[in-house]
Write a structure and sequence with these properties.
About 40% of the residues lie in helices and about 20% in strands. The longest helix is centred in the N-terminal third of the chain and has 19 residues. Helix 2 crosses helix 10 and helix 5 packs across helix 12. The protein starts with a helix and ends in a 19-residue tail after the last helix. It is globular, with a radius of gyration of 20 Å. The chain has two domains: about 180 residues, 3-Layer(aba) Sandwich (D-Maltodextrin-Binding Protein, domain 2); about 100 residues, 3-Layer(aba) Sandwich (D-Maltodextrin-Binding Protein, domain 2). With about 325 residues, it is of the alpha/beta class. It has twelve helices and twelve strands. Helix 3 links the parallel strand 1 and strand 2.
Length: about 325
């Protein structure tokens, strides 16, 4: 259940944490009445979930933040990350959150937008692995066409992007590339299914695979990396220094960057498989530049698992 939440509600979890942390840091302060902090969420954060449901679940937290600070929160979901950049630059949004690759795609267009903090899970450089059994005959992605894949619907975004890329570069159509496959509940089950022969392959993020190696070394040794991605930059909380009021910026920065120092903050971070919110280090710039070499333009990953045929057809 916990691992399913990790994947299912990354966007809601992160912004719930933003709101609750701000309240804990400045809960007794009263700011100017009528102020509104508008937060833009990239729709890609909700992959596999209904954005309307996520927004509905977020509203009580926004109300709590407003009652404690006098600053109302309004959340909006944007299909195109560029729309978040444009609204931040215009001052119509105070904060945005998007995957690092989305920020890399839009930042030339909106050069004034900056990352305030990064979402780190021991690292800010994300990887994806396509895995098969060690004793299988598969030697490349094309060998898996029509085969089953153990892939949680709510896997991390870069796993979708990398799978789409590998299939496309092999000259294949990524849409319905894999055969109809049951959906595992979480990454552990996905890896177990490949080990047990219930699925031909899986795609997992690097941190999850390393955790599996530590917990189940015997099973992990029986798996083989068929394809390994380069590094993807982690998600960023972004803002416009020209538009976001300094007091709000400081409140967000202080509340999130110190969250790991508090017991409640550490528990929430662990739940969402984050270790800390950190200021962007110099190497983040390198990650942004390099990911564009692999993905020079925005793409929407195809639905690469075939749907089951209706009964009787």
């Amino acid at each position: 259940m916990v691992r399913r939440m990790n994947r299912a509600a990354f966007g809601i979890a992160l912004f719930a944490f933003v709101v609750s942390t701000l309240v804990s840091v400045r809960g007794s302060e009263k700011q100017g009445k009528g102020r509104v902090l508008r937060v833009g969420l990239s729709q890609a954060l909700f992959r596999g979930s209904d954005p309307r449901l996520m927004l509905a679940l977020m509203q009580p937290l926004g109300d709590l933040f407003s009652s404690q600070t006098g600053i109302a929160c309004e959340f909006g979901v944007f299909a195109d990350p560029a729309d978040i950049g444009r609204n931040l630059a215009a001052g119509d949004l105070g904060l945005g959150i998007m995957h690092g690759i989305d920020y890399a795609w839009i930042r030339e267009q909106y050069a004034d937008i900056r990352p305030l903090l990064l979402c780190a899970n021991e690292t800010i450089a994300l990887k994806a692995y396509i895995l098969v059994r060690e004793d299988s005959s598969y030697r490349g992605i094309s060998d898996l066409k029509g085969k089953s894949i153990a892939f949680p619907k709510r896997s991390l975004n870069h796993c979708y992007l990398y799978t789409h890329k590998v299939i496309t570069e092999a000259g294949e159509n990524p849409a319905a590339f894999f055969g109809c496959s049951p959906e595992p509940a979480n990454i552990d089950q996905a890896l177990d299914w490949v080990f047990e022969g219930k699925a031909a392959c899986t795609v997992v993020d690097g941190i999850s695979f390393e955790t599996y190696r530590q917990r189940k070394p015997g099973r992990a040794k029986a798996l083989r990396v068929l394809h390994e991605s380069g590094y993807y930059p982690t998600a960023a909380i972004i803002y416009s220094p020209k538009r976001l009021p300094e007091d709000i910026r400081e409140k967000v920065y202080l509340g999130l960057s110190t969250a790991h120092e508090r017991l409640g903050g550490r528990q929430l971070l662990t739940l969402w498989r984050l270790s800390a919110f950190i200021p962007p280090p110099p190497e983040y710039e390198t990650l942004l530049v390099n990911v564009l070499k692999e993905h020079p333009r925005p793409i929407v990953p195809a639905a690469f698992i075939a749907e089951a045929s209706p009964a009787g057809q």
